[in-house]
Amino acid sequence: MDIRGAVDAAVPTNIIAAKAAEVRANKVNWKSYLQGQMISAEDCEFISKFEVAKSEDKQEILTKEGHQCAKTFLNLMAHISKEQTVQYILTLIDDTLQENHQRVNIFFDYAKKTKNTAWSNFLPMLNRQDLFTVHMAARIIAKLAAWGRDLMEGSDLNYYFNWIKTHLSSQKLHGTGAEPGTGTISPSESSQYVQCVAGCLQLMLRVNEYRFAWVEADGVNCITAVLSNKCGFQLQYQMIFCVWLLAFSPQLCEQLRRYNVVPALSDILQESVKEKVTRIILAAFRNLLEKSAEKETRQEYALAMIQCKVLKQLENLDQQKYDDEDITDDIKLLLERLGESVQDLSSFDEYSSELKSGRLEWSPVHKSEKFWRENAVRLNEKNYELLKILTRLLEVSDDPQVIAVAAHDVGEYVRHYPRGKRVIEQLGGKQLVMNHMHHEDQLVRYNALLAVQKLMVQNWEYLGKQLQSTEQSTPAVATRS
Q1: Which label site among 129, 176, 353, 478 has the fewest CB atoms less than 10 Å from its CB?
Q2: CB 395 within 8 A of CB 360
Q3: Residue 410, number of CB atoms within 10 A of its CB
Q4: What is the mean predicted confidence (pLDDT) over 392-419?
Q5: Helix pair angle (233-246, 219-227), 10° resolution
Q6: Cβ-proximal residues to 383 (8 Å cutoff; 6+ apart), any chain
Q7: CA dist., res. 404 & res. 448, Å (int)
Q8: 3-state SS assignment for residue 152
Q9: How far is it, in rounded angstroms, from Cα 303 to Cα 306?
């Protein structure tokens, strides 16, 4: 899939397009502003000529008078406060840039002469009250930053990305809304404005440098939070599109390992009824497997996909017919790669992948004496990486099954590696397990109690008899594949 065409096609039009059409229809009386001495004769003459020019004539005007065009646009924005007119100016600017991406350079040329940045006049507009004005300014900033010859950097980029994160995270947008005099907008309109914000991010992440800046700004957590919030399919598509773009950078594929993107995308793939959502998830998975520079990283992503039952989903998808060749090719490649990984899959790989996904269940490895005898000490690898995840799940998970399995695993770890007791205590795991002895779920209480016994008792032969007695009076744990 080509980035340029894909991103341009992905930016939604919805409410912004409808409002823009309405704004274009309300022509501005520039002479009244001239008579009121709010704009200069030079700016009045230029804007009056430019707004009525045909497309080919506009290009000629911009070629000859690009400096004057940028100057007039920015002067009008600075000297006119009426919201309807500001909306008109921004719409005219956005139309001008959308018609020809190279036109962003008139703002860069003018900014260079005035020792400013191309977006410095637009960033303050993100603080205005009117939603249409704010989002038009945001679109223009994204186009300048993505299509321009100079990169947005430093405090400007941080400010813009923080604005995007805030608006992606918000469930309800407040402002003047589409209707005059109203203080809030409908959920439907709010959702469409959030899609416009997502469209800005899609444009920005076309640029490799901005991908790194977005990850540095904790933007991936923002994306996964949106995806976990049961958003509509359009916003799902846009957020996954951003993951796909991020995964074009090999270094970022390494960093994305920390964010559990595979479980999030596999959940959506399982429920997806929209072909375009399925397509972008498969494309993102393919990038994660193909663009990752390190073999270990590629293997980790493959194991995560296997753990999240992606292989089964791919087999189901492979039975269907698609007009889009990209989907067919991606399914074929993913089936091949995951099939190879399954053959090389060890029980420890399976356990590690399950633990990193945060979705513990009673899979066979947890109850396998052989597994713990051979692998307990391996939980110490990479500075106790897996052990830290295990104790973290005891602290943050609200799923009784996850807590029960985690408590069980802590017990098995110290039973087969007694020196690990001190490590568990240093990580806070002992106290966490003890806390769960009073959990409302019976299975959690039971496994927490056993884990505490294993942490405390030294005489394993005696404990073994006690456990045997306890287990005979406790219902068997249901397992699931």
Answers
A1: 478
A2: no
A3: 31
A4: 96
A5: 150
A6: none
A7: 7
A8: coil
A9: 5
**Total number of residues shown for the chain:** 481
Question: Position 294: which residue type?
Answer: E
462 by DSSP, 3-state: which?
A: helix
E strands present in 296-393: none
pLDDT in tens, 455-480: 987 655 555 555 566 555 555 444 43
Side chain identity, residue 61: I
Q: 73-97: per-residue pLDDT in tens? A: 999 999 999 999 999 999 999 999 9
Contacts (Cβ under 8 Å, ≥6 apart) of 65: 46
Q: Angle at the Cα of 58 (from 57 to 61), degrees rounded to 5?
A: 90
Task: Show the CA angle centred on residue 302, arms to residues 296 and 307, nearest 5°.
Answer: 120
Q: Looking at the DSSP assignment, which residues form a beta bridge with residue 184?
A: 174
β-bridge partners, 174? 184
Spatial CA neighbour of 296 closest among 308, 285, 304: 304
Of 304, 231, 238, 326, residue with least CA distance to 271: 231
pLDDT at 9: 45
Is the sign of the CA dihedral 213, 217, 218, 219 positive or negative?
negative
Round to whole Å and give the CA distance between 332 and 7.
24
For residue 400 the two structure tokens come to 């009784």
pLDDT digit string (tens) for 300-338?
A: 999 999 989 999 999 999 999 888 888 999 999 999 999
Residue 479 tokens, joined: 């397992």
pTM: 0.78
**Which residues lie closer than 8 Å to 252 by C-beta, 6 or more apart?**
211, 212, 215, 246
Question: How does DSSP assign 260-307, residue by residue?
Answer: THHHHHHHHHHH---HHHHHHHHHHHHHHHHH-SSHHHHHHHHHHHHH
